[in-house]
Amino acid sequence: MTPALTDTTLLALLRDMPKAELHVHIEGTLEPELIFALAERNQIELPYADVEALRRAYAFTDLQSFLDIYYAGASVLLHEQDFYDMARAYLARAVRDRVVHAEIFFDPQTHTARGVPMASVINGLYRACRDAERDWGISCALILCFLRHLSEEDAFQTLAQAMPLRDRFIGVGLDSSELGHPPEKFARVFAHCRELGLHLVAHAGEEGPAAYIWSALDTLQVERIDHGVQAQHDAALMQRLARERIALTVCPLSNQKLQVFPDLSQHNLPRMLEAGLRVTVNSDDPAYFGGYINDNFEQLFAVTGMGPAQAYRLARNSLQASFVGESRKHAWREQLDDCFVRHGFQDAIDTSEGAPILP
Ligand SMILES: [Zn+2]
């Protein structure tokens, strides 16, 4: 169990600072209570007796053991309203964590393979995003992810199914089982997506080697790397990531839960930040990994000794790495600076765009 953050002024700052979440799988926000409620509504029998039994099954040892339960949980999603309710619950939670902008991953193949129409998935999620913007002022966008354990041909078919709703998602990503499924497996479909003007991201270097990060950058030509923590084993790659200001969407509690870093105090995020990398903090699959974005911030700061300067850099990185126009980023940066002044941490404001923070 990670100790709580005892510095109450830093805790208040972390909770209150405006931030963007750039790595969250909407299916990974399904809380056990909602899984059971949707199972009842859709008359689906679950292989777990109750909410507590399902929660107890969340004892993962690696990425694959998590994915097995994750796909079982997603089986309760059938209708457009189910996808709406799931996204609505996540966005309500994100607003409480002062997320001003969320770029949300969704895995259509997990649903279309069960006979759920693509339009039910995208329209439910999209409607939740628009309603959240109207009701709570949070900005959000959708990123369609291909499951990398499936074929590139399957990815092409998925993209074709989604194209009638092209105006409802801003980009594509690559997720699911990483090892044995290198980015280059999806070279042609990513090239096609690039021609379509979609933003490109990919999971790389979570459990897989640094070589996967190179090929995500060079072969897929992604704009951000999801996870990327294995870059630490490749000095040339670290230098490139820093030089080209490529954002890494890091997920500390996910990495701890899936044993990428068995102890959060040994997480390499502080070292990557010091090396000048554009690192961000995200929740990945918060319902499964024990925490939403602010839990990630709080637990990481509790054990690594990072302070307001790193908090500012991480929040600013998240806003800068988002796929929105400069005028909105400018407004959010002003909110961020105001927040640091309000909390008495104006000395931590640093507009140098990530020159290395020395320990
Ligand atoms: Zn992920």
From TrEMBL:
For molecular function, the Gene Ontology terms on record are: hydrolase activity
Name the residues annotated as site: Important for catalytic activity.
227
What Enzyme Commission number does this protein have? 3.5.4.2
Organism of origin is Comamonas endophytica
Task: Give the active-site positions.
Answer: 206 (proton donor)
Binding of Zn(2+), residues: 23, 25, 203, 284
State what this protein does. Answer: Catalyzes the hydrolytic deamination of adenine to hypoxanthine. Plays an important role in the purine salvage pathway and in nitrogen catabolism.
Keyword DNA-binding applies:
no
Cofactor note as given = Binds 1 zinc ion per subunit.
Q: Which reaction does it catalyse?
A: adenine + H2O + H(+) = hypoxanthine + NH4(+)
Q: Which family does it belong to?
A: Belongs to the metallo-dependent hydrolases superfamily. Adenosine and AMP deaminases family. Adenine deaminase type 2 subfamily.
The record's listing under CDD domains reads: ADA
Tell me the NCBIfam families matching this sequence: aden_deam, PRK09358.1-6
**Record domain Adenosine deaminase: where:** 18-338
Q: Where does substrate bind?
A: 285
Superkingdom, according to UniProt? Bacteria
Annotated protein name in UniProt:
Adenine deaminase
UniProtKB keywords = Hydrolase, Metal-binding, Nucleotide metabolism, Zinc
List required co-factors. Zn(2+)
Keyword Hydrolase (UniProt): yes
